[in-house]
Amino acid sequence: MKKKYLRIVMIFLILIVAGIVFISRMPRLDSDVAAFQHGENSATISSLGTAIEMWGRKHGRVPTDEEKFSVLGLSVRTIADGWQRPFIYKSQRTQGPQAFLLYSLGPNGIDEGGHGDDIVYRRERSEQN
């Protein structure tokens, strides 16, 4: 009879310890979700930026601010970051026919012009030359 109670107490203690471990890891789970979301946005913006670059090479210029993603057959409404906000696209033709800025507002949702926590598309150096 004592063994039965001892076994029940041991199972109860194991469940308590498992619960404590699970609860202590909750903040880490939240940060993992944020890291995943950031990575997902980086992948999306990289694909979008590469598509704009390819279109720019074919046409000798990048899309204008008015054209944005429509030249790729995409609507601004269909292109959203992980926080359901549109990506920001700015043609920077004063810096050259292939220059553009593409970024997400990032987790804070504030337009920091591609700075702060904004997630920015960056071309590789070898591709810029």
From TrEMBL:
Q: Tell me the InterPro entries matching this sequence.
A: Pilin-like (IPR045584)
Q: Show the stretches that span the lipid bilayer.
A: 6-23
Q: Which domain of life is it from?
A: Bacteria
Key words of the record: Membrane, Transmembrane, Transmembrane helix
- The protein's name is Type II secretion system protein GspG C-terminal domain-containing protein
